[in-house]
């Protein structure tokens, strides 16, 4: 519990006993009975009900110690481990100083292996808390890294993006893992769009980014980690075409994307518990429930770091939003791009399939763009301009096409009779 939480609890308690302190009630017992007959939403603790003796205790504490006495008491041994003795603490810290290159998990396993501590008496979490209090969690170079909180004062300057593991769905007797892709605006904390999928490949990430842009405009920068999907060539090219600067975190440094990580934490705390009474039966069902929660709960409720909801703050800066209203053109920016040499029969091979191109391109090396999810539609480009379409080859249709007969020109044609006459003269 933070100091702010303790202060909020004390204010709540004071609100209940204030009428008694100021003699604003005719009967103390009647007032206590009325208050204790109700449920109350208590800061930090949630929904509670109280006994009259509890309120009388608060009243007595306030008269003795003032407002501070109404704050919940902290642990008397706060900052000290209950299971790690001072001697063992010094031994662990000294060992950690010599093994800063190890992760905390490997360091703990080494302590157990060397019989420095017994796992049934000192848990990993106890050692973790000790090292955290001593700022010894990370290797030396990470421990020296300085972090400063920042936030842009304009919307759509920076979006943070990431993927989080979602809930498992049981479909057809199989348990399938879901993945949640999302982007968040750094200034307003608005999530323009997010969606669950069964795969963590490029396609679902692309779909979320496209929908985010269509809904909330084009950001100036996108900040993502070093996952494979965020290094895809198609993403870099699309961002360049849209005027977006694509930047990546340092390797093994997820803490640098704190806002999107906190959003995923909010999803775990506030959305996932809602699924307990209405477990989705399909991926579409899961997304439908999530989108409803995202728009009605997260984006619309006041944010703890703001004076308003993310939605209201985003709408307060319309001049910072550069809209992109052509979904067809946006889709093409994310097409996969490859180069092929046109064969003598005016065909190219793409994804193990033959495609026909205009005959004038025979022998040339051309650029083709297509959506891997719809490989039947292939477009031919030259200097970023579409110049043609490649159609899938149908051998059956080609066999029935009537081809134009090639005749010799009249001035060069030789009749069969003339040819025989020439042969007789030679003899």
UniProtKB/TrEMBL annotation:
GO terms for biological process: DNA integration. Residues 144-318 form the Integrase catalytic domain. GO terms for molecular function: nucleic acid binding. Pfam families: HTH_32, Mu-transpos_C, rve. PROSITE patterns: INTEGRASE (PS50994). It comes from the Bacteria. This is Integrase core domain protein. It comes from Methylomusa anaerophila.
């Amino acid at each position: 519990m933070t100091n702010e939480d303790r202060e909020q609890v004390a204010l709540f308690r004071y609100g209940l006993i204030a009428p008694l302190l100021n003699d604003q009630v005719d009967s103390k017992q009647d007032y206590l009975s009325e208050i204790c007959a109700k449920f109350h939403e208590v800061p930090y603790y949630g929904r509670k009900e109280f006994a009259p003796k509890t309120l009388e205790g608060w009243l007595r504490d306030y008269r003795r110690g003032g407002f501070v006495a109404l704050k919940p008491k902290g642990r008397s041994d706060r900052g000290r481990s209950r299971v790690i003795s001072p001697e063992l603490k010094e031994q662990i810290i000294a060992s950690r100083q010599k093994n800063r290159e190890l992760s905390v998990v490997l360091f703990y396993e080494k302590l157990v292996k060397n019989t420095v501590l017994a796992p049934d008496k000192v848990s990993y979490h106890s050692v973790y808390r000790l090292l955290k209090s001593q700022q010894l969690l990370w290797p030396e170079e990470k421990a020296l890294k300085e972090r400063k909180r920042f936030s842009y004062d304009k919307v759509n300057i920076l979006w943070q993006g990431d993927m989080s593991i979602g809930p498992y769905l049981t479909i057809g007797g199989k348990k399938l893992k879901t993945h949640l892709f999302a982007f968040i605006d750094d200034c307003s904390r608005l999530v323009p769009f997010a969606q669950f999928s069964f795969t963590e490949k490029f396609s679902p990430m692309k779909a979320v980014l496209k929908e985010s842009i269509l809904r909330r405009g084009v950001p100036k920068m996108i900040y993502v980690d070093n996952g494979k999907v965020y290094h895809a060539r198609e993403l870099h090219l699309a961002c360049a075409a849209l005027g977006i600067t694509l930047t990546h975190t340092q390797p093994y440094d997820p803490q640098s994307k704190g806002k999107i990580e906190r959003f995923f934490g909010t999803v775990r705390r506030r959305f996932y518990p809602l699924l307990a009474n209405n477990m989705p039966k399909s991926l579409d069902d899961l997304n439908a429930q999530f989108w409803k929660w995202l728009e009605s709960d997260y984006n619309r409720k006041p944010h703890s770091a703001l004076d308003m909801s993310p939605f209201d703050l985003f709408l307060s800066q319309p001049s910072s939003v550069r809209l992109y209203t052509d979904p067809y053109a946006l889709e093409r920016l994310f097409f996969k791009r490859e180069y092929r040499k046109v064969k003598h029969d005016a065909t190219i091979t793409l994804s193990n399939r033959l495609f026909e191109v205009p005959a004038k391109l025979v022998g040339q090396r051309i650029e083709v763009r297509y959506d891997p999810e719809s490989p039947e539609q292939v477009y031919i480009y030259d200097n970023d301009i579409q110049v043609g379409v490649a159609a899938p080859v149908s051998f059956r249709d080609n066999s029935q096409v009537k081809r134009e007969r090639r005749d010799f020109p009249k001035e060069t044609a030789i009749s069969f009779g003339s040819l025989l006459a020439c042969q007789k003269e030679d003899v």
